[in-house]
Structures are given as C-alpha cells and as structure tokens.
Amino acid sequence: MDWVRGKGTVRVDAYEDFDEFVRARRLPLLRTATLLTGDRHAAEDLLQETLVRAAQRWPAISAGRSPEACVRRILYTRSIDAWRKRRRRAEPVAHHERSDPAAGDQAEHSDSRVTLAQALGLLTPKQRAVLVVRFYEDQTELEAARILGCSVNTVKSQTRHALGRLRELAPELLETFGRQEVQR
C-alpha cells in the first residue's frame, strides 16, 4: 500500500519496523528522557515529541546505519531546544520514579538513584545532556559531540562545569559514587 507524501511516495509497510522499534526501545529511551528532564511526565512528553519527529523521518532514519543513534540524537536535541525556548532554570527534582516496573526490587540502589536524580536536577539541560550521554550512555567525548551536534571542546567544558557544579551543590555524591568518579 502506498500513499503520497510531499514529493514522493512512501510505502505504509515501511513504518511497520518503526512500530517494532518503538516497542523494543521505548523503556530505555524513557529512562534517558527522565534523566534529561528530571521529571517523569516531562520525559514522557519529550519522548513523544521525539518519536513524532522520528516517525516523520523514519524511512531515512531506518535506511541509516543506526536508527537508535538517530532517535537518541533527536531526543537530546529536543531536550536542549525545550530548555532554550523556556529560558528558565529547571526546578530540582523532588523524587525519581522508576521507569521499568518489571526490573525487580533494587532497594539498595534507590538512594543512589534519588541522589543522582536530584543532582541532575541542579544542572542546566545542556549539562544534563552531556553527562547523560557521556556517563549513562557510556559514550566517548567524540561520540557525545557527534550525538549532541557540538564540538568535542564543548563536551569537555560542559562536563567539567557540570561535575564542578555537582561537587559544589551535591557533595553527598562524593560518598555515594566515589571521589574519583565525580572528580574526573
């Protein structure tokens, strides 16, 4: 089945793999969005906007080497764009909701998650995005720069500023996560 879109024709069944992608990757993307926004409801909105944008470009995205990398870049970019539009500092996060209820009970890690969520809430969205890409997504500085659409030096400086701000505003992270990890 075909339908006309813009100047070309798009096969409807080309979007079946988009549905499959969303079913498989929704929860990991939601966890990342929650870290970026500091709020579960804002994360759901951010993810929805991201998926709408990805669906509009899905034939081109799915034809590329890494559809997930493209969708994650849209997620990071939309997060920073939303911050630029508001031009206000985010409120610190009061609590962190679990994104994956089927993950089992991990009470020993809940204090660390709450502390991390609150600390990320103290940062600007750009600083949060850099830390999430670098440390949560475990990307190199070069990959983080490519994903976020900025220079490697920007990633380095934003990481340095964000970690310095965390040391200053959330010293409890030094005990929770270890001095060497926070003081890199």
What share of the residues lie within helices? 55-70%
Largest sheet: 2 strands, antiparallel
Secondary-structure element order, as H and E? EEHHHHHHHHHH
> What's the Cα radius of gyration?
18 Å
Oligomerization category of the chains in this entry: single chain
DSSP helical segment count: 10
Low-pLDDT ranges: 1-5, 88-105, 178-184
Q: Give the percentage of residues in beta strands.
A: under 5%
Query: How many strands in all?
Result: 2
- Structural class of the secondary structure composition? mainly alpha
Shape: globular
Distance between the termini: 54 Å
Structure description:
- 70% of the residues lie in helices and 4% in strands.
- The chain is built from 10 helices and 2 strands.
- A hairpin with a 2-residue loop joins strand 1 and strand 2 (8-11).
- Helix 1 (16-37) crosses helix 6.
- The N and C termini lie far apart (54 Å).
- The model is unreliable at 1-5, 88-105 and 178-184 (pLDDT under 50).
Keywords:
70% helix; mainly alpha; single chain; two-stranded antiparallel ribbon
In short:
This protein is mostly helical and 184 residues long. Helix content is 70%, strand content 4%. Mean pLDDT is 77; it is low at 1-5, 88-105 and 178-184.
Topology:
Elements: E1 2-5, E2 8-11, H1 16-37, H2 40-56, H3 58-63, H4 67-86, H5 107-121, H6 125-136, H7 141-148, H8 152-169, H9 172-177, H10 179-182
